[in-house]
Amino acid sequence: MPPMNKDKSFLSNPEWVKGTCDCGIVQFEIKYPARWSYHDHSAGTRSAMGTASVTYVGSWRKRFKITNGEDALSDYRNDDKALTRRFCIECGTPITYERDASPHMVNIPRGLFREGVGREPRYHVRMSEMPDWAYTGEQVNPLKDYPTVLYERPRKSKKLKTPEDMF
Ligand SMILES: [Zn+2]
To answer: For the segment 23-33, what is each residue's pLDDT rounded down to a tens digit?
Structure first.
């Protein structure tokens, strides 16, 4: 059973947890707690989302509802991969990722919820597909004059090419 955060006193509505797209048109809710939460490192998600990985919240479909902006949702159907991705046509925010193989589940990016969903993302799916550029917790250091930017020292296993070496 996935770990559960039993303290839901911080929720504005202890029964349902709200999420929205970036522009706010699409609004939805899942019933608390979510089924589970996980980090998806798969190549398919990377290609669709343009990111190293995405943290998803998995909800039973019957515990998920669109509460506003259903007309602003567009579907991207991928028959080869047997999945459907839905996104907001106004702002492009991905809303759901649904697999034919799991018809009773809806996966929603964790970042669309501002409140706790009752499950911590302790699971990792398809870690073997992680790209070698994914951040995996290496030590970071301050970058002079850029307070919001940190940088990693080169990894010892790789020889760093300087611009001179490249030509
Ligand atoms: Zn939107």
So the answer is: 999 999 999 99
